[in-house]
Amino acid sequence: MFTKSSSSSFTLFSLLVLFLLFLLNGCAAPVIKMPRPTPDFIKEYKSVVVYGGKPGMHDSGIRVREGDFVALLAKGEINVWPARAGNVFGPERILLYRFGAKELVKRYRFSDFIRIFEEKGNIFLGYQGSDIDFYGEARQPTWYLDDIGHFVVDIIVWEEKNFARVADFIEEASKDDPKNEALKKIAGPLKNNKKYFLAEQEKKKEVEETKKALLALKEKEISETKDIHKEKQIAELNEKLQTAMQALKDLDEVKTKMAEQKEKEKEFLARMERLEEDKGKQAKIPPVIAIAFPKDGLSVDSEYLTISGAVEDEEGIAKFEIWVNEQVVTQKDQRGIQIVAKDPKKIDFAEKIRLRAGKNEIAVVAHDIKGLTARKTISIQFAKKKENVWAVVVGINKYKNFPSLKYSVNDAREFYRYLTEVNQIPKEQVWLLLDEEVTLDKLRSTLGTHLRRQAAKDDMVIIYLAGHGATERDSSSPDGDGLEKYILPHNADPKDLYSSSLPMSEVARIFQRISSERLVFISDTCYSGASGGRTVPVLGARANVSGAFLERISQGKGRVIITASDANEVSVEKDELKHGVFTYYLLEALHGKGDLDGDGVITVDEVYRYVWLKVPQATGQEQHPVKKGEMKGEIILRVLK
Fold it and tell me: Pick the residue with more confidence: 102 or 496?
């Protein structure tokens, strides 16, 4: 909408451009004619337009929560390459969605337009106009610029999971808009879901009422002369209960068969899409790829190598790519970077690529002008020359003047065992300090003197801490919260934290004194002052703690900090785990589950992603690990055998 004051600034040319864009993209009317006011059984509704020519995933503004019952309705067309015929697609072919910025994308299907969300996050929408990564982001955004058309996506968040209400609403909307093909496609399947849902609800109600009747009958005082009648009633109710429960079981089997049929329909649709794409290609020959160097299976100790070879095709090469570990590193094509070659039917290539530690999958991909594709993949193993690793592991259960903890020592011992037995770091390069050994003097000398003297620039340093943290009011604190944070040694004095504990300001200085350019500090403690975790309130009520102290200690080249919880959260222990929750999942990650990409190498980032997912789930979203600091390249914590 334009105001009078601004309309004068628009030229005739500007209006013409707007009109042309309107013609190209069409009128973006909602899929469903939502009644006004919005029905009370709809929690949230929004109609969003996904325009051709806009690469990547875009935030819809709708935030879903765990367990939300959500419907996505879509219509429209996008031409992903107007210069070529046959590239006009509907939403079922190329519409993508995801929830949360870090989740993988999913392809939209009418067959499962209703989803129960298992995670929380905003819904993002986009489309697959060309090559994309796992998160739906365009690898070559310029390829999208000439795409035209749009999809309209209606997002409905229902108040409850009630298929009957949803089916009735869609059926009524379809009657009001009989030409709406999008509604017609889903109205039929929803009727079946409604039938199953109502039958299931009826049987569940019958089961609950029968259980209540049985309980009431058993508790009711009846005279001896009526015992026979009572037993007969109980037998009849038991039989009724078994019949109702069997009916529920039968309904579950029907539901399972419906789900299986749904999957078969998806597979059929996908197969038909592939057949359509392959139509007319049977008698044609795809490009030929030859890799001269390196050979498949080669092991190297250098982070960089040059891959060389040639690609040929009788029809002419339209696109050429080199992928390393599912990421494109080289692209040449007729839409973006023009192929520079004397002969358009042949490309000689020699590209320098960067490897990561462990197994690397390298793929050369070529497409010809007829749409045929060839792919050749090799595997290269990269193992860095081994450097020294130095570590300090601290765990305190027993405190002289503070409440004891249960599992800090167990956490520290298991982390020490991982370093020395699993990762095979020599024991003389790892300091283990437990309980009474952890005095302030010992802590200072170990970190600030012994570790500093031993760790060289190219070495790696790992510091692990499990124990109590505390805060004290200090107006000179640079963190903006008026608090100094302390690591509490065994002999810390609550009345004199300044002289008996290790302040984070000193920890930052110690880290700066260590010359190693790869330092990882892992802390299973907290500083919120709340009860029930690895923190203690000292001299005053709990305060709002700033996380700026983590930024302080992670400053400098190659410093990474991972803490068990956010600044104002509690780091908890659990009896069933015999560990702090954070350390339990930290160890799980290090023992193999952290290898999220399956390349045989576990990095600091992978460990953090693992605990970032697991710890909140195990603590009811009460504890969220935090990572601060950055490092050039990857920090490898384990290479799996």
Answer: 496
Residues near 325 by beta carbon (within 8 Å), at least 6 away in sequence:
356, 360, 361, 597, 599
Whether 339 and 332 have beta carbons less than 8 Å apart is answered as: yes
pLDDT of 463 higher than 90: yes
CA distance 140 to 328: 10
CA angle 612, 618, 621 (to 5 degrees): 70
- The token duo for 238 is 């038991």
Distance CA 337, CA 320 (A): 10
**Cα distances (angstroms) measured from residue 154 to each of 29, 113, 179:** 10, 11, 17
Other CB atoms within 10 Å distance of the CB of residue 617? 11
Q: Choose between 478 and 350: higher pLDDT.
A: 350
Q: What tokens does 412 get?
A: 């520290």
Structural domains of the chain in order of their starting residue, each with its CATH number: 23-161 (2.60.120.430), 198-278 (no CATH), 288-382 (2.60.40.10), 389-573+623-633 (3.40.50.1460)
Residue 323 CA to residue 485 CA, distance in Å, equals 46
**Residues contacting residue 544 through CB under 8 Å, at least 6 positions apart:** 481, 568
> Is residue 129 within 8 Å of residue 80, measured between CB atoms?
yes
Range scoring the smallest mean pLDDT among 155-169, 179-193, 572-586: 179-193
Residues 250-278: pLDDT tens digits?
Answer: 666 666 665 555 555 555 555 555 555 55
d(CA 568, CA 537): 12
- Distance between CA atoms of residues 432 and 417, nearest Å: 10
Mean pLDDT of the chain: 78
* Angle value at C-alpha 79, between 74 and 81, nearest 5 degrees: 145
List, for residues 121-150, the tens digit of each pLDDT value. 889 999 987 667 777 888 778 878 888 899
Residue type at 417?
A: R
What residues pair up with 71 in beta bridges, in sequence order?
Answer: 114, 156
Burial class (CB in 10 A: 0-12, 13-18, 19+), 45: middle
Backbone angles phi, psi at 447, to 5 degrees: -80, -45
Q: 0.70 cut: is pTM over it?
A: no
Winning range, highest mean pLDDT, from 73-87, 456-470, 546-560? 456-470
Nearest to 509 by CA among 564, 459, 559, 473: 559
Helix locations, 447-547, DSSP H: 451-454, 497-500, 504-513
Is the peptide bond preceding residue 426 cis, with omega within 30 degrees of 0?
no
The SS3 assignment for 228 reads helix
CA distance 276 to 582: 50
pLDDT per residue as tens digits for the range 598-622: 777 888 989 999 999 999 999 888 8
Q: 125 with 48: CB under 8 angstroms? A: yes
Integer Cα distance of 170 and 187 in angstroms: 6
* Token duo for residue 298: 């080669």
Query: Where does the pLDDT of residue 461 fall: very low under 50, low under 70, confident under 90, or very high at 90 and above?
Result: very high
Q: Which of 36, 359, 32 is nearest to 171 (CA)?
A: 32
Among residues 596, 632, 614, 610, the alpha carbon closest in space to that of 358 is found at 596
Distance CA 492, CA 501 (A): 6
HEC secondary structure over 385-418 = CCCCEEEEEEECCCCCCCCCCCCHHHHHHHHHHH
Greatest alpha-carbon pair distance for the chain in Å reads: 107
Q: Look at residue 235 and give its three-state secondary structure.
A: helix
Mean pLDDT in residue range 310-323: 87
